[in-house]
Amino acid sequence: MSVPPENPFTSDTSPSTNGSILTDKSGWDGKLRVGKRAEVVNAEILSDPDYSDEDAPPVEQIQADEDLLEDYEEDTDEIDLVHSRVSSIPALRLTRFPNIEKLCLRQNQISHIEFPSNIGQSLQDLDLYDNLISHIRGLDHLLHLSSLDLSFNKIKHIKNINHLKELKDIYFVQNRIQKIENLEGLERLRNLELAANRIREIENLDSLTGLEELWLGKNKITELKNVSSLVNLKILSIQSNRLPAITGLGALVNLEELYISHNVLTHISGLDHNRRLRVLDISSNPISQLANLNHLDQLEELWASSNQLSSFNEIEKELADKKELNTVYFEANPLQTKNPALYRNKVRLALPQIKQIDATFVRAV
After folding, report:
1. Which residues contact 354 (CB under 8 A, 6 or more apart)?
2. How far apart are alpha carbons 28 and 63 in whole angstroms?
3. Neighbouring residues of 55: CB distance < 8 A, sequence distance ≥ 6
4. Nearest 5°: phi and psi at 171?
5. Among candidate residues 52, 35, 46, 219, the one with its CA nearest the CA of residue 130
């Protein structure tokens, strides 16, 4: 069943190695995906960015004689220390693990990034989600990193990573970043997640021509621009910003998924060249007319809940010929609220190919 992502910012792809998904108190794992459980260890950095408690007891730290890694073989290629009270990376003595490829230190009390140089030849995946890191540094020797997760920290500036030429995935969700910068040279980057920061402008992405996914939800962006160089982009999420219109997407001919809910869109436009769109999410905008969708022949899912749509004729006109369309969401529109008893039948009559209306499958007649 297709379910549109609940907006994680009102209550546009990294589970831990032990199989459990670590999320914040709203059930968000930092990557615009909602799980079933929630736990954020350093919750104060979410509620108050300038949190400081001088009277708080000292953080419990790893003692010198406590070896959290004593059960790991020296030739191990994966280490997972989640919620383990780690405050010092040097205290882990990672030098003894020269073959480590994946290191997960989620939900700890780490404030400084310090790694021995000998693991730089092997380490590919570094996960420091939900710690107390304020500055990106200490990555000089990690030249083979392909994935870097620094979500849910206290970072203000993107820096000291553009020498990591093999990076494919960057996760900087829920920090204090105000500017997209210092990403030049990351030609292999495929996924960039910057949701829940303080970004006001899309900029400095020109060199990221291989980017396939860009996540910018819950920022302060007022104009969709400066993305024309991202010709390989397949997913754009820019939910919960301040966009009054869909603009600047003309060059994104490979775009397949656009999530632009919870903005201030008043009409649908600007998608003339995005003929490969399969998923379009325009939920929670003040849109009153369903229009300008005729050319989207590959559309499979349209999420348009909580708008001001009122015409079943528009639905039929714009969507009836879409053979691939299987899911629509129109709940919380006048379409549904003014006549809830007949709503589903009318949608089904207008769109006989539909398999799912809102969260419910359509029964075969």
Report:
1. 325, 326, 327, 328, 347, 348, 362
2. 32
3. none
4. -120, 110
5. 46
Distances from the Cα of 208 to the Cα of 90, 108, 133, 295, angstroms: 34, 32, 26, 28
Sign (positive or negative) of CA dihedral 161, 213, 288, 361: negative
Q: How many residues does the chain have?
A: 365
* Percent of the chain residues past pLDDT 90, beyond the cut: 81
pTM: 0.84
* Dihedral pair phi/psi, residue 26, rounded to 5°: -95, 5
Output the six-digit token pair for 84: 């383990």
Place of tokens 């297709």: 2
* CA–CA dist 212, 225 (Å, integer): 17
β-strand partners of 148: 126, 170
Q: Note the pLDDT tens digit of each residue in 137-164.
A: 999 999 999 999 999 999 999 999 999 9
pLDDT in tens, 178-226: 999 999 999 999 999 999 999 999 999 999 999 999 999 999 999 999 9
Which positions ≥6 away from 54 have C-beta within 8 Å?
none
